Amino acid sequence: MNEATPSLSLPNPNTIHPIAGYENEIYVKPTIKNPSIAVGDFTYIADRDFESHVTHLYEWNGDRLIIGKFCQIASGVEFVMNGANHQMNAVSTFPFYTLEGWNMKPPAKSDLPLKGDTVIGNDVWIGQNAGDSSRRAYR
Question: Model-level pTM greater than 0.90?
Answer without folding.
Answer: no
